[in-house]
Specification:
This protein has 8 helices and 9 strands. With about 250 residues, the chain is of the alpha/beta class. The strands form 2 sheets. A 7-stranded parallel beta sheet has the order 3-2-1-4-5-6-9, sandwiched between helices. The chain has a two-stranded parallel sheet with strand order 7-8. The longest helix is centred in the middle third of the chain and has 29 residues, at about 100-130.
Length: about 250
């Protein structure tokens, strides 16, 4: 299936593993030149980039606007800019609100929300110049239902949905779409430590009866970046096996 992506250029944040790396593989397979970002482990990022033909490593803390500006200057030098941005990077620092430290609150919003803002702001420059662009923000059911014990994460993801709608409204006239994707439980390193009992309990809540594979989320992101989705903007695509439909 030709998605008309060959020759496009993409940046994926949080791309050293999980959904980000799976998305990098999917885009690269469609002929997209992919820049992979991570900000915690340069070794893991280099290992991920080695799996992507023509991929480039962008080790940067996206919560730092200067680091993001430097990263985009490097991308412009290497690839001439970007056409596709997948804001996937996220961190968690869970705690009940009464015990949640301000630093933990700020860190989660700085990466999960501010990082998406910094990257979108920088990426829009080359997208507007090309009169074509795709922004996909990875959110969570916590954005819509809250998440007890993770107010910082839920707040960041909820704000990310609002940011997505605003980006869509501002950029549509330039041929740019902005959408969010909302995965449920996904088989990634984040859930690797779950007990069998916890996994069984969560799987029982999912009509599909299982956790998603990272590649299944990447397939949905791939659709939103393609010409097939050129009239889709400002919405959230839920990919959770039916978990939140009730």
């Amino acid at each position: 299936m030709d998605l008309e992506l060959s020759g496009k250029r993409a940046l994926i944040t949080g791309a050293s593993r999980g959904i980000g790396l799976a998305t990098a593989r999917r885009l690269a397979a469609e002929g997209v030149r992919v820049a992979l970002n991570a900000g915690h482990s340069r070794e893991n990022l280099d290992a991920a980039v080695a799996q992507i033909e023509g991929g480039i490593a962008c080790f940067a803390d996206i919560s730092d606007p200067k680091a993001v500006d430097d990263m985009f200057r490097s991308i412009k030098k290497e690839m001439g800019g970007i056409d596709i941005l997948v804001n996937n990077a996220a961190v968690t620092r869970d705690s009940l609100v009464m015990m949640l430290q301000p630093a933990a609150w700020r860190e989660v919003l700085a990466v999960n929300l501010d990082g998406a803002f910094h990257c979108s702001r920088a990426g829009l420059r080359s997208m507007i110049g090309s009169r074509w662009g795709r922004i996909v923000n990875v959110t969570s059911p916590a954005a819509f239902f809250g998440k007890p014990g993770a107010a910082n994460y839920a707040a960041a993801k909820g704000a990310l949905v609002a940011l997505t709608k605003t980006l869509a409204g501002e950029s549509a006239r330039h041929g740019i779409t902005a959408n969010a994707i909302c995965p449920g439980w996904v088989e990634t390193e984040i859930v690797a430590g779950m007990s069998e009992d916890a996994r069984a309990a969560e799987s029982a809540r999912i009509p599909a009866g299982r956790f998603a594979e990272a590649e299944e989320i990447a397939d949905a992101i791939l659709f939103l970046t393609s010409e097939r989705a050129r009239y889709v903007t400002g919405t959230t695509l839920v990919v959770d096996g039916g978990l939140t439909m009730r």
